[in-house]
Design a protein that fits this description.
Layout lengths: L7 H21 L4 H20 L3 H12 L1 H8 L1 H13 L5 H7 L13 H12 L4 E5 L6 H5 L2 E6 L2 H7 L10 E5 L2 E7 L14 H12 L3 E5 L6 E5 L2 E3 L7 H22 L1
Parallel strand pairs: 1-3
Antiparallel strand pairs: 1-5, 2-4, 3-4, 5-6, 6-7
Helix pairs in contact: 1-5, 2-3, 7-9
């Protein structure tokens, strides 16, 4: 009896499957999805057993359940699947041509944004311990995020941002999206991070980090508890940013995005 032949193609196949399972695990981490998957796996094993022992009626019932299992999985795991696909799409370097097709008008650089009113508003809200969540749009399409909130079309100003995030204001709960120097939406819902983060992180910091995982946007979070200012970008969040150097830090992140776009164009 010889050994089962093992080729390089088999090795690649195993690596790809392992990568897929790891990606699914990352998408499900921190949710109840693993328990649901375990339940589905148990039902599948039970179906194999009843077919083995030729239990016709039971096998038919389980077969009907499994036949609609794909649709059920898509419905149950919709948030996790969406997050997983967003993470894949986040690797824009390989799919930049799609951005050109679907976002041809987004050629203007966000470096033109006047950061002074944003910085001043964050500094004053931090001193007063008013929570805030501000998204500065870059190249990624944020239409889904904008549509989740209330549309606004107004020039960015310190007074406007402070009024939106005032504790008793109807729009304070959620995020503000800034694009091209204008506030385009408020009270927007952001995806929460799937990373294992310290317990000290509040919902704003989790949302800021989650948004930075699925887009190239620069996200500012002002803590309601401490008044500290945080910047999230490219799946990394930096806390306790000095307000005096906040504009410099944001410009640096913008330059990183600009350089990344330039490198992509150079590779082509």
């Amino acid at each position: 009896m010889g050994f089962i032949p093992f080729t390089f193609v088999d090795f690649v196949d195993i690596v790809l499957v392992a990568s897929l399972f790891y990606g699914v695990y990352r998408a499900m981490k921190g949710t109840s999805a693993p328990y649901i998957m375990m339940g589905i796996f148990v039902i599948y094993l039970l179906w194999i057993l009843v077919r083995t022992f030729n239990l016709v009626l039971f096998s038919t019932i389980l077969g009907q359940i499994i036949s609609v299992g794909v649709i059920a999985i898509l419905i149950i795991f919709q948030p996790e699947i969406r997050h997983f696909l967003q993470v894949i799409g986040r690797q824009r370097g390989r799919f930049e041509f799609l951005s050109r097709i679907f976002n041809l008008r987004q050629r203007k650089s966000e470096d033109d944004v006047d950061l002074r009113p944003i910085v001043q508003a964050c500094q004053e809200m931090g001193e007063q311990k008013v929570g805030a969540l501000i998204i500065i749009k870059q190249a990624s399409d944020l239409s889904v995020i904008v549509e989740s909130g209330i549309a606004i079309d107004a020039k960015v100003s310190t007074a406007l941002l402070e009024n939106i995030f005032f504790k008793n204001a109807p729009l304070h709960d959620g995020a503000v999206v800034i694009s091209g120097g204008r506030v385009v939406a408020a009270k927007c819902v952001l995806p929460s991070t799937q990373q294992a983060v310290p317990k000290a992180y509040g919902m704003r910091h989790r949302a800021a980090l989650g948004m930075s995982e699925v887009s190239d946007a620069i996200v500012i979070a002002v803590s309601e508890e401490t008044g500290g200012i945080s910047l999230a970008h490219d799946s990394v969040i930096k806390r306790n940013i000095d307000p005096q150097r906040m504009a410099q830090s944001i410009r640096q992140l913008m330059r990183i995005n600009t350089q990344r776009q330039a490198d992509i164009q150079a590779d082509k």
